Amino acid sequence: MSAVEILRFALHGLLANKLRSALTMLGIMIGVAAVILLVAVGQGTSDAITSNIARLGSNTLTVTPSFTGGMRGPGGFGGAGRAGATGPRTQAKRLSLADARALADASAAPSVKTVSPVVTAASLTATYEGASHTIGRLVGTYPSYFEASNRPVAKGSYFVNDDVLASRKLAVIGTTVAEALFGDVDPVGRRITISGVPFTVVGVLKETGTQGVQDADDIVIAPLPAVQQSLTGFGPLDQIVVQAKSADVVDDAEAEITAILNERHGITGTASPDYRIQNQAALQETVSTATGMFTVLLAAIAGISLVVGGIGITNIMLVTVTERTREIGIRKAIGATRGAILGQFLAEATMLSLAGGLLGVAIGVLGSRFTIAGIQPVIVPGSIVAALGVSVAIGLFFGVFPANRAAKLRPIEALRHD
């Protein structure tokens, strides 16, 4: 019997009971779609976090107080930083503008390019001619912050050092704020009110996009003195963003920052620092490793459903062999070889798994076009190949036992079967 005839008999056997075949394919389809989608979600999560960190550049360091439970980094991303040696803590000091000025001293920190002190406020209401919007994040800082945090403007301009010295109430807004307050109107040069304080918009930031559940474009950046005078008060800083002169001297810059702050805050011996230094390059490597493991875990969980689908194939094929015992006996009596019977049932199992796998690929790819839990899935081509290959392999593996059972039936016993 030729391969074409074997496939024809296999297809006829599957079509003889369409509902059963469809339900069997469903298990494989769900398993393949789950593998592709979960891997895509894991990859999307990894890409979102990595791009958020990468926006800061590999030569950016962020200093935050270590006793606040973790502060948000520039661009809306928070992460664990290096706190230094462990040990008894001295009287904790908050970060101050004087600390920032000390870090900007070229003689004490020759590897540092720029220093940007930062204060932040959240959930402030901005209004413009009847439109209002609750700002996700208000940042008071220096002009160097824009370069250090990689926030270029798409329209208008930044504020400059003279604006900081004069405490001018100027604002550079994100696209989310611009759309909420102005719609299609050009915001540059117009005055908005933030918690009752007027600010003139001088620029609109280039769109960054949502990172997970955090909208990085829901932001307003203004000169530090203007924000402190009118909104936050002259308290401690929330963070200090330091830009090293190059990625090659980041470690040197970190050592210089540590030495300066330890001296200013009275950190000696084994005492724990009251600040953290977040190294973006090291953080990105750590996060990439963690998200990679997370993606593998998701794929392994989804792979269980593929195994369950394979068990379903075994079950259905055993039922099919039992139901078609007499047919098998007749075919063997008129000359069908053991290999032909084995090939037919293996072909049926493989066709079921292949059809289910192809449908699963289609659903997985289609599903990846939608945002899931705030994450835009990113299809990994290897997951498609692996899921489809595993589904076919499962069909072959779990189809061997029932196919072999059918092939071993003796014609006389099969013909006697009711």
Written overview of the protein:
It is a single chain. With 418 residues, this protein is an alpha+beta fold. It has helices spanning 3-15, 18-54, 97-103, 144-148, 161-165, 175-182, 224-232, 250-265, 280-323, 325-333, 338-367, 381-408, 411-416, and strands at 60-65, 112-121, 124-128, 131-135, 137-141, 153-156, 170-173, 191-194, 197-205, 210-211, 214-215, 219-223, 239-244, 275-279. The strands form two sheets. Strands 1, 2, 3, 4, 5, 6, 7, 8, 9, 12, 13 and 14 form a twelve-stranded mixed β-sheet that branches. The protein starts with a helix and ends with a helix.
SSE blueprint and pairings:
Elements: H1 3-15, H2 18-54, E1 60-65, H3 97-103, E2 112-121, E3 124-128, E4 131-135, E5 137-141, H4 144-148, E6 153-156, H5 161-165, E7 170-173, H6 175-182, E8 191-194, E9 197-205, E10 210-211, E11 214-215, E12 219-223, H7 224-232, E13 239-244, H8 250-265, E14 275-279, H9 280-323, H10 325-333, H11 338-367, H12 381-408, H13 411-416
Parallel strand pairs: 5-12, 7-9
Antiparallel strand pairs: 1-13, 1-14, 2-5, 2-13, 3-4, 3-8, 6-9, 7-12, 8-9, 10-11
